[in-house]
Hints:
By secondary structure, chain A is α+β, with helices and mostly antiparallel strands. Chain A has a single domain, classed as Alpha-Beta Plaits. Chain A has three helices and four strands. A four-stranded antiparallel sheet of chain A has the order 2-3-1-4. The interface between A and B is medium-sized, with 22 and 22 residues.
Amino acid sequence: MYIAMNRFRIALGKEKTFIQIWCDRETYLEEVPGFRSFNLLQGPTHEDHTLFASHTVWESKSAFEKWTKSDAFKKAHANASPNKDIYLGPPVFEGFEAVV
Amino acid sequence: MYIAMNRFRIALGKEKTFIQIWCDRETYLEEVPGFRSFNLLQGPTHEDHTLFASHTVWESKSAFEKWTKSDAFKKAHANASPNKDIYLGPPVFEGFEAVV
């Protein structure tokens, strides 16, 4: 199992806007080989931001990597949001292999 | 769904020791109401450490919180490892609610 996470620091008060972006978004993941599940996660709120993480579970790292080179990936990222004022910096990617 | 993660920064070269600690550990989670799944995840390697995360999926935040006050929790943490030299600082807890 491989878990791909992107960590987003969202300005305080913009949490609902950020969640709505993900509700409205079409990810086309259901059609992708090796895809298991997707969730948007809301984490702790700090002094100047709330942490969110996209959380996608894959059968393997190679299934994830194939997806990043696929048409489904391009389609899912074609309409990237212009709501720049809600983000404190770019997302930080972290990929995890299940070892236990 | 609620995901409880603890982030561990492990000294380079100590990755196998850290994984072995988790292989040997009895978590007693199977018996806990609201528990769904547990994995130890290995993340990216940086200049001075490798990131790991414990990743426990719960039915709800309240199920997780009940567990932290339970005998099963005390049992699971009774034999905390003395291998202090493998950790770069204490673990950092992050709890996440699935919002999408």
